[in-house]
Amino acid sequence: MQLIDDPEVMANWAKKRRRGGETVALVPTMGALHAGHLTLIKLARMHADEVVVSLFVNPIQFGEAKDFTHYPRKLEQDLMQCEALGVDVLFAPSADRVYMKDTSVWVDEELLSRGLCGESRPGHFRGVCTIVLKLLNLVQPDLAVFGEKDLQQLRIIERMVRDLNIPVEILRGKTVRESDGLAMSSRNQRLSEGARLDAVVIYESIQGAKKQVEQGERSVEVLIQAVRDRLVCLPRIVIDYVVVVDDVTLKPIERIHSTALLAIAVKLESIRLIDNDVLRRS
Amino acid sequence: MQLIDDPEVMANWAKKRRRGGETVALVPTMGALHAGHLTLIKLARMHADEVVVSLFVNPIQFGEAKDFTHYPRKLEQDLMQCEALGVDVLFAPSADRVYMKDTSVWVDEELLSRGLCGESRPGHFRGVCTIVLKLLNLVQPDLAVFGEKDLQQLRIIERMVRDLNIPVEILRGKTVRESDGLAMSSRNQRLSEGARLDAVVIYESIQGAKKQVEQGERSVEVLIQAVRDRLVCLPRIVIDYVVVVDDVTLKPIERIHSTALLAIAVKLESIRLIDNDVLRRS
Fold first, then answer.
1. Which of B19, B100, B162 sits opposite A163 (nearest CB)?
2. Which of B104, B134, B137 sits opposite A110 (nearest CB)?
3. Which residues in chain A touch residue B110, judged by CB atoms under 8 angstroms apart?
């Protein structure tokens, strides 16, 4: 496995690969790899000749400096995991090589990014879109893999690919969960033991809503209230949002017609956790 | 020469070319080609195996609906000129194939686009950046050619290429002028006979400023006043701006240290004309 930290070297690698005709898959990450990432990497491995994993904690997508500073960084361990999965290139540039001091060009998504995390984290998706486009341009992959846990991010990136005519196919990786159901996240390791136990209620409340829909509940108001009732039982949890949205537009809906998305964001000891799943009429 | 009107066909053409290893140059235009465009096409022809000329009157970069509606369109004539210059592909998509109705992703430049035309035409450079990035993604060229007449556009596109790590080299094409000095523009053909005669004062006033600088004038205030004095003599001309800016940041400066840019925008019978040149200490 090749470790590249210079964007120029990465771009030259990509140029050679383009000429060579091999297919390339990119898995963009912020490192501190967990089983969720490894699933994305395996998916990439299945679909391309060459797999590039990027590892970059993108400062501009963090609203709070504290969240950025405390975001886990484990380069040694990430390196070994990538090596073991047969990754060809680990691209880990430093922030000052990625953003010039007078950077002035940004990518903005203005519909799908309005609600959910976009509302709670102003500027977050500008940061995400801009860095993902930069990585796509540097690596020039045929495929790029993103996880369904970051639902809104995934949909916004798919929209960006469509609207900017980016020549890449986006693969969706299923959410991977801990044995108790908590969605894998690099932030989970920052939770105290008590908070970690509480965190499972996010998953449980989603499962509860899924069951209610299967049993005939159609009112979004009723579904959301049931989720909130479960979450507020745990005093460590502060709800950011609980929403049911249209699968395509990500706009809130009032009744479940066929399928919809339930999405949740909470803070647990000031650590932000998100999760989502499809609500489907049986 | 191949005429392509479908973005998907264009993208497939680009994909094949990438695999084949030929170099591709793109010349983005809004059609109504004049000698200025032809110079850009010849420059492209000299530097690449395959030349693609795009022809798209981009609705989102026009502030005024009237300017968009009246922008000259001469597909037949453009086609013949491209053919004669050995262009390989003329890419002329329709607007509804380029922009989906629920388009929501845009590219914004936030420093270089603040003054000059960006100030007079809000949203203009968002339109320019977005369409240029889309064209670069569809055509995947090694080189793209832009004219120096649209100075601010050129600099903003160069900045976009840098900040978004777009794998393309930008070539600058010199401004081509009519025999009396008026910078070539598709809009020139909309001028009445009288206005066409007046228009030469734009060039003449720039030449005057260049001479003043050569003769030792360093005060930008003095230079601008001299240009304005010439322009206001002609009652058909309405000045939008006369500015002297730093060559890199495009910010207004007060004194000429080594080189600077003089840029002018006026309306003549409501037709917007721009021009610029370098002021250089001898």
1. B100
2. B104
3. 104-106
Answer yes or no: do B217 and B91 share one domain.
no
CA distance A167 to B194: 49
**Could you read off the pLDDT of B63-97 as tens digits, one per residue?**
888 888 888 888 999 999 999 999 999 999 999 99
Q: Which residues on chain A are in Cβ contact (under 8 Å) with B108? A: 105-108
Residue A282 lies in a domain: no
Q: A40 and A11: one domain?
A: yes
Distance of CA A174 to the CA centre of its chain: 11
* Predicted confidence (pLDDT) per residue in B184-228, tens digit: 999 999 999 999 999 999 999 999 999 999 999 999 999 999 999
Say how many domains are in chain A.
2
Catalytic machinery residues of B: 37
Sign of CA dihedral B74, B76, B79, B85: negative
**Interface ipTM:** 0.96
User: CATH number for the domain including B147?
Assistant: 3.40.50.620
DSSP code per residue over A224-269: HHHHHHHHHTSTTEEEEEEEEE-TTT--B-SB-SSEEEEEEEEEET
pLDDT interval class at A223 (50, 70, 90): very high
Asked if residue B179 belongs to a domain, the reply is no
Report, as ranges of residue numbers, the positions in chain B whose pLDDT lies below 50.
none
